[in-house]
Amino acid sequence: MCNEAARLRAIGEIVDAFSQLKIPLRFPGGVPNLGEAPSIRITDPAAIVCAAAAPPAATPSPADPDTVAADLIVRRWSWPGPTGKPVYNFRSEGRAFPAAGRCLIPLDAFFEFTDPAPGTKRKTKWRFTAADGGLIGVAGLWRAGVVPGAGGGD
């Protein structure tokens, strides 16, 4: 995964997108006051969507016994690794990582960087978006119980 992304949609638009998927979003820490974020770096807090910590408040209907809910919370996009550098690329092959630690990061775009073009010093920045201009969900990992920006990583 990249180390920079963009989220230009309001929280209400993200809620609507999940509603269309029949996944109600909850806000255990309150509705976050997040504005447009044209550049989210790996150490910045960002909105993430994870499996709900508790079953939905509404009783599942007989027509839809598999009612699920998700929590939208704010967490840092990375956590400090053993060397202190942020971990944001994580290879899962051969590692056990609980399903509870997986999340989606709702974004409008993410960026990748390639070596500088001949004759230039700056890397080339590539922007990736959904072909239809819609919201994209990038797979992520998070750690519960860690406050964003507290230095313990999340």
What would the keywords be for this entry?
about 150 residues, mainly beta, 4-stranded antiparallel β-sheet, 1 helix, globular, disordered C terminus
Q: What integer is the average pLDDT?
A: 80
Q: What's the β-strand tally?
A: 11
Beta percentage is 25-35%
Distance between the termini: 16 Å
Q: SSE order in H/E notation? A: EHEEEEEEEEEE
Q: Cα-atom Rg, whole angstroms? A: 17 Å
Which spans of ≥5 residues are poorly predicted at pLDDT below 50? 59-63, 147-154
Strand order of the largest sheet: 2-5-4-8-11
Helical content class: under 10%
Structural class: mainly beta
* Shape assignment: globular
Major sheet, described briefly? 5 strands, mixed
Helical stretch tally: 1
Q: How would you portray this structure in words?
A:
The radius of gyration is 17 Å and the shape is globular. The strands form three sheets. It has a five-stranded mixed beta sheet. β6 (79-80) and β7 form a beta hairpin. It starts with a strand and ends in a 13-residue tail after the last strand. The longest helix has 10 residues, at 11-20. The protein has one helix at 11-20, and strands spanning 4-7, 25-26, 37-41, 45-51, 70-76, 79-80, 86-87, 102-107, 109-114, 124-128, 136-141. It contains one helix and eleven strands; from the N terminus they run βαββββββββββ. The chain is mainly beta and 154 residues long.
What's the structural blueprint in terms of helices and strands?
Layout: E1 4-7, H1 11-20, E2 25-26, E3 37-41, E4 45-51, E5 70-76, E6 79-80, E7 86-87, E8 102-107, E9 109-114, E10 124-128, E11 136-141
Parallel strand pairs: 2-5
Antiparallel strand pairs: 1-3, 1-9, 4-5, 4-8, 6-7, 8-11, 9-10
